[in-house]
Amino acid sequence: MNPQPIILTGKFGTSTVWVGERIGNLAEHLPSGSVFAITDENLYRHYPEPFKDIPVFVLKPGEQSKTIASIEEICRWLMDQGAGRDAFILGVGGGVVCDIAGFAASVFMRGVAFGFVATSLLGQVDGCIGGKNGVNLDGYKNIIGNFSQPRFVICDTRMLHTLPEVEFRNGLAEVIKHALIADGEMFDYIRKHHDDILRLKPEAINYLVKRSVEIKAAIVSADEREQGERRKLNLGHTWGHAVEKTDGIPHGQAVSIGLEFAAALSVKKDLLSHNDREEIAGLLKKFRLPVKTQTPNREIFEALQKDKKKENDYLYFILMDGIGKVRVEPVTLSELLSFICQQGT
Ligand code: NAD
Ligand code: ZN
Question: How many Å apart are CA 313 and CA 231, to the nearest integer?
């Protein structure tokens, strides 16, 4: 496939996403000036080639690197390298590397240009797209950050062959989320091409990544700062984040449980049929994604309540209006609690 650009436009810059582009063509996207790369040990081990001619800062893989200390170290390293206002920062990695590289680039010397090679499925369909950058603080995720768009994001889907399978499955939860938000046909495609997807058949993977990016880009272009439309991307995340806290399971798996919860609540509100709810749960299970936890819903509710901003007694819940359409509705905490009690857990 010849990669087609997907353009994301916002107040914080314009970003061009290239799905299906090869990392081997990276040089065509880089500016002629001084480029500095940030990656993690896994990517550096699998793909040393792009770093032959570019100075590179190699992070420890995983969430524990998403700290302000990493940003400080990177800025110090950039100074040592003689980087100036014309520096271009290249992040090569999953959501973690891109969050760190994007934030470091947008604060170094009050902001220099940057671009990404997104290497994990989650990064390609979500984490490296949309212009949110940031790091964690004291166990709270993405507390320090900003909005700034990368000049480009290359999604080389061939790189997914080296991604651990469990990471691939976790990324699929966000792909299914995108289909549920905006594209019923995409949902049917995932159902029908389940084997091709797990076998990383290029046609299937490129289609899923491309549609996911198009859906996210359209929503972000309409509402970069999450004041309305962008909330839709939180489908499965209100409940999912609380499950992530209580169960300490990977994000994608928590989102999968959150999607099933949102589907159940949507059935209760007569927005989704029982049949559709079963289709959704069936699809998640086919990809070995969980749809429930051992933790009683009451405990998850308590975690959710604790996490919530204090101003009001409701939260914006993303509900499924059939498959491929969502609506954002305020749901009061007492309504949520009575729904949980009716469910019997
Ligand atoms: P990750 O970056 O930690 O990648 C997962 C693991 O896979 C890591 O060990 C990494 O080294 C490895 N890996 C990545 N690509 C590989 C490849 N091609 N071959 C071999 N190994 C590879 O995590 P992730 O799941 O990509 O992203 C999760 C992060 O994204 C979270 O920190 C989350 O907060 C963030 N995120 C950000 C946004 C946003 O809008 N900024 C949105 C969603 C998620
Ligand atoms: Zn997510």
Answer: 18
Alpha carbons 132 and 123: distance in angstroms, whole number: 12
Cα end-to-end span (Å), the chain: 48
Mean pLDDT of all residues belonging to the chain: 94
In DSSP terms, 135 is beta-bridged to: 144
Verify whether ligand 1 is closer than 6 Å to residue 230 (CB atom).
no
The C-alpha angle with vertex 335 and arms to 330 and 336, in degrees rounded to 5, equals: 85
Of 167, 172, 226, best ligand 1 pocket probe by most atoms within 8 Å of the beta carbon = 167
- CA dihedral sign, ordered 187, 188, 191, 195: negative
Q: With contact defined as beta carbons under 8 Å apart, do 239 and 298 qualify? A: no
- For ligand 1, say whether the CB of 46 is within 6 Å of any of its atoms: yes
Q: Which atom of ligand 1 is nearest to the CA of 120?
A: 15
| C-alpha closest to that of 26 among 126, 155, 129 | 155
Structure tokens at 283: 């699809």
Q: Is 9 helix (H, G, I), strand (E, B) or coil?
A: strand
d(CA 200, CA 339): 39
Torsion of CA 223, 229, 235, 241, to 10 degrees: 50
pLDDT score, position 33: 82
Beta strands 132-137; 140-147: pairing state = antiparallel
Pocket test for ligand 1, best of 96, 226, 256 (most atoms within 8 A of CB): 96
Dump pLDDT digits (tens) for 167-187. Answer: 999 999 999 999 999 999 999
Examine the pLDDT at 250 and tell me if it is beyond 70: yes
State the Cα angle at 124 between 157 and 174, rounded to 5°: 115
Cβ–Cβ under 8 Å, residues 293 and 257: yes
Answer yes or no: pTM beyond 0.90: yes
Rounded to the nearest 10°, the torsion over CA 226, 227, 230, 232 is 130
